[in-house]
């Protein structure tokens, strides 16, 4: 779900950048990066948790 939102914000940023809305594009990229980093952190935590349960 979070990766989907990250991709949506990147697409919004690309479209806004194409049409010249630099402020909106910059904000959308920052939001997409933030959501993507949260996704990566939660994914790593999930992997660690699944390895701990197997033992």
TrEMBL record:
Domain of life where this protein originates: Bacteria
Say yes or no: keyword Hydrolase present: no
**Chain ranges passing through the membrane:** 7-28, 34-52
In its keyword annotation, does this UniProt entry include Transmembrane? yes
Which keywords annotate this record? Cell membrane, Membrane, Transmembrane, Transmembrane helix
The record's Gene Ontology cellular component field reads: plasma membrane
Q: Which InterPro entries does this entry report, sorted A to Z?
A: DUF1328 (IPR009760)
Task: Give the protein name, as stated in the record.
Answer: Uncharacterized protein
**Biological source species:** Litchfieldia salsa
Taxonomic classification: Bacteria, Bacillati, Bacillota, Bacilli, Bacillales
